[in-house]
Amino acid sequence: MNITHFFTYIQVLHGDEPISIQISSTLVQIDNWNFLIDTGFVDQSDVVYLLNKLGVSAHGIHYILNTHIHPDHVGGNQHFPQAEIYLSEKDYVFQRDYMNAITKAEHAPLCNVVKTFYPQFNENQLELYARLSAQMAAHWKNDLVGNLEQTHYIEEDWPFDFIDVVETPGHSIQHYSFRVNTPGKPFLVAGDALPTKTSFRQNKLDFPYCHDAGLYLESQKKIGEFQGIIVPGHDKPFDTETGEYLEEYDAGGVEDSKGHHEDLI
Ligand SMILES: [Zn+2]
């Protein structure tokens, strides 16, 4: 079994400052099967370019697993029309309905729309969510994750016995992490249940866009108990024993792929 991590990037404006955000993808190769966990941002083909550099064509990806349905994690699914795609139905349906409600709001105050989905949010959370959700909705379409024929819902169908699905909700309504059981140390591809190594075993909210803070912290606790190699959603793989990054699994990204601009933040 071979596991390779790499980043794709989006450029975002943080205030007036352009910053580059790295997004994890993980290639798992076993026998002659290629699995890709998360596919990067919408409307950029860097994921295919980087796979090609690793010797894998887009048609050579047999399975895609998505940790959650945000546009920086499912955005590249469209490049793999021959792959079978596994994702959470609950996460997809919530995100679809929410994104469509935001899009249809037009001139209605967005905070009111957010409130129908998140009645527990306070004013600050509503404003933050309204702003970030509007930016996300600009990239949403209902078939963003792939077409119906290639989509499988993890809740109904999970045929891979060497990969365990780990429920890690909170960042989104039904976020999944994937535990890949290797002959050596197991890998946990954590998605945004652990965005970066900095959050590991810290027990604090580190991410502004959070569906349910309580569930998110519970999931972080669960991840904190894992022993092996963790791949965060926006950071390099690291060993839980030493806390060190593991460069040998990391194919990095490419500098010339960092030209994609998004006005996201
Ligand atoms: Zn993310």
Relative helix content: 10-25%
Please tell me the overall pLDDT.
Answer: 91
CATH arch. level architecture: 4-Layer Sandwich
Name of the CATH superfamily? Ribonuclease Z/Hydroxyacylglutathione hydrolase-like
Give the strand content. Answer: 15-25%
Radius of gyration: 18 Å
H-E order: EEEHEHEHHHEEEEHEE
> Which fold does the CATH topology refer to?
Metallo-beta-lactamase, Chain A
Distance between the termini: 38 Å
Instruction: Strand order, main sheet: write it out.
Output: 1-2-3-4-5-6
Largest sheet: 6 strands, mixed
Which geometry do the CA atoms define?
A: globular
Give the total of beta strands: 11
Alpha-beta content class: alpha/beta
How many domains would you count in the coordinates? Answer: 1
What is the name of the CATH class?
Alpha Beta
Tally of alpha and pi helices: 6
Which parts are unreliable, with pLDDT below 50 for 5 consecutive residues or more? 258-265
What do you see in this structure?
The protein has 265 residues and is α/β, with parallel strands linked by helices. It has a single domain (2-254), classed as Metallo-beta-lactamase, Chain A (4-Layer Sandwich), CATH 3.60.15. The protein is built from 6 helices and 11 strands. A 6-stranded mixed sheet has the order 1-2-3-4-5-6. It has a 5-stranded mixed sheet with strand order 7-8-9-10-11, with no helix packed on it. The protein is globular, with a radius of gyration of 18 Å. Mean pLDDT is 91; it is low at 258-265. The structure holds zinc ion. Zinc ion is lined by residues 70, 72-73, 192, 233-234.
